Amino acid sequence: MAVLDFHSYLSLLPAIQMSPERSVWLTYDLEADVLYVNFKKPSKATDSEMTDEDVVIRYEGEEVIGFTVMHARQRSM
Length: 77
Description:
Number of strands: 5
Number of domains: 1
Distance between the termini: 29 Å
Helix content: 10-25%
Largest sheet: 5 strands, antiparallel
Strand order of the largest sheet: 1-2-5-4-3
Shape: globular
Radius of gyration: 14 Å
Structural class: alpha+beta
Strand content: 35-45%
């Protein structure tokens, strides 16, 4: 049987409970070092903005539907 250290994932629970849809989908692209966080699926962004921290916030109309974290490995320390 595979062993998973799920304890580190438990720290995500408060953020998930406060997310717009109470659902979160995460995808990490190791090669690009980019984390994609989506609150709605399917979703189609109609606009986006880049923050000073290299995070792209994606909108569908006025609603935040997710964000993309560039250079994700630098943030996990």
